[in-house]
Amino acid sequence: MALLRIGFNEGSLLRRTLLHIGTFVAFSVAFISIASFVLVSVVKGLLPREPATTDAVAEHQGDESGKPAKPSGIKSNKKVVVSPPTKDD
Q1: Alpha carbons 58 and 75: distance in angstroms, whole number
Q2: What single string gives the DSSP state of each residue in 69-89?
Q3: Is the dihedral of CA 14, 16, 19, 24 positive or negative?
Q4: Are the C-beta atoms of 72 and 58 separated by less than 8 Å?
Q5: Alpha-carbon torsion 43, 48, 51, 52, what sign?
Q6: Which residues, in sequence order, are CB contacts of 11 under 8 Å at separation 6+?
Q7: How many CB atoms lie within 10 A of CB 65?
């Protein structure tokens, strides 16, 4: 297995400068990515979940599919009685 041998003080000035800039950019991107992931995870864990947001999401998903969303409240066991039409109707 070949070892990666890159010296920071070897080569031309342009090569050394590009190596330093590339290293700085790579580690900056890695640090910012890890730090933002940790901060977002901590904040999501600390904030309480709002039940209203889940109802809004369910209603929105019901609107997209063309079917009405099911209400998330108490279900009633009432039966609807439909009377047959009369002659006057």
Answers
A1: 17
A2: PPP-SPPP-PPPP-PPP-TT-
A3: negative
A4: yes
A5: negative
A6: 19
A7: 8
Residues 2-16 have pLDDT tens digits of 556 666 677 899 999
Low-confidence ranges of the chain (pLDDT < 50): none
CA distance 53 to 72: 12
CA distances from 28 to 7, 13, 70 (A): 20, 22, 48
pLDDT of res. 82: 72
What CA–CA distance (Å, rounded) separates 65 from 58?
11
pLDDT for 32? 98
How far lies 88's CA from each of 19, 38, 82, 85, in Å?
91, 71, 16, 8
pLDDT for position 14: 93
